[in-house]
Amino acid sequence: MRTYDKYRNTKFIQKSDVERGALVTIDKITEENVAPEYQAEEIKYVIQFKEDYKPWAPGIETLEAIRDIAGTGNVDEWSGIKLVLFVDPDVKFGRKKVGGIRCRAPKNQPETQQDEPTYQENPDWVGEDPLPPKDDQIPY
């Protein structure tokens, strides 16, 4: 799908940059003012990637998802963590669905990348991936 978003001159990654999904590796996390010049200061974590993508300033829900993928809430330990970025059409801004960028662990990797879980300890486990990808169209 072609959209006008790619012509916006933005500092941060946007939906049109990851329409088909993007496999990225966290390089570093900084704290920056992400508010436009005409608004009050808004400090957020900003994720820089090793790949050629603009930085990302995710919200708290997404930071919690990354914490679960990384296995730690210490953002200083997130460098090297691989994520799949994708567009989730159900993301809301206020009460309106506007779509937005979400992330998940790459396929065929445990949800927690630091401590590999042992699924055999769960008697209900039947050998399938316990966390199916949110978007089966993304090949990684």
Give the termini separation: 20 Å
Low-pLDDT ranges: 115-121
Largest sheet, strands/sense/barrel: 4 strands, antiparallel
Strand order of the largest sheet: 2-1-3-6
> Helix tally?
1
What structural class do the secondary elements suggest? mainly beta
Give an overview of the whole structure.
This protein has 140 residues and is mostly beta strands. It has one domain (4-121). The protein has one helix at residues 60-70, and strands at 22-33, 43-49, 82-88, 92-93, 96-97, 100-104. The chain has a 4-stranded antiparallel beta sheet with strand order 2-1-3-6. Strands 4-5 form a two-stranded antiparallel sheet. Mean pLDDT is 82; it is low at 115-121.
Brief summary:
This protein is mainly beta.
Give the helices and strands, then pairings.
Blueprint: E1 22-33, E2 43-49, H1 60-70, E3 82-88, E4 92-93, E5 96-97, E6 100-104
Notable traits:
four-stranded antiparallel beta sheet; 140 residues; globular; mainly beta; 25% strand; two-stranded antiparallel ribbon
